[in-house]
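User: Hi! I'm working on a homework problem where we have to compare a predicted structure to a textbook description. Could you give me the structure for the chain below?
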Amino acid sequence: MTYSPDRVDVRILSLLQADGRLSNVDLAQQVALSPSPCLRRVRQLEESGFIRAYVALLDPQRVGLGLQAYVSVTLDKRREAAVQAFHHAIQAAPEVISCVALTGEMDYLLQVVAEDLEHFSRFLMDRLLRLEGVANVKSSFVLKSVKETTQLPLTQVLR
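Assistant: Happy to help. Predicted structure tokens:
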């Protein structure tokens, strides 16, 4: 049976997206429930896969990863082995914090963090460009972050 969240669940999800460290007592108070039923709802949301994980979001600059780039990658699509090798290499690359497969001119878009241009260059030249099947790579460096959030617009989709 598929779990279907109600308005209270959506409120719980919204509050936890904004502050994953919110105590159950505070969460329950904000959604007008007693702590036990609130905790049951949170556990149901976790078990149903609505909540995948709880994380701490770090400031890349503060931890020494001051360079951020988006790298578009086009692969030689005729070779399935090369595609699988690319997937495996990207999973193993700590500099790649996001990789999505896309339609259009590029096959993949990578979000990459690095200490500096030298670190990025080593990643690009020594690892990414040496992968079999990589046909084309284009990099764009982040100058300024205009909007950055991990919060999904739940009120628009879950009713």
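For your comparison, note the following. The beta strands are 67-75, 96-101, 108-114, 134-141. The helical segments are 7-18, 24-30, 35-47, 80-92, 117-128, 154-157. Good luck with the assignment!
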